[in-house]
Amino acid sequence: MVESVEVFYDDLAESYHLMFENWDHSIARHAAILGPILEQHSGKVSAYVLDCACGIGTQALGLAQRGHILVGSDLSKSAIARATHEARMRDLDIPFHVADMRNLSVIPENGFDAVLIADNALPHLLSQSDLEQAIIEIAAKLKDSGILLATLRDYDHLLSIRPAMLEPAFYEQDGRTRFVHQVWQWHGEQYALHVYITLETENGWRVKHFASTYRALRRSDLNQALQAAGFTDIRWLEPGTTSFYQPIVVARKSGARRLIKSRRDG
Question: Is beta strand 96-98 parallel, antiparallel or unpaired with respect to 190-201?
Answer without folding.
Answer: unpaired
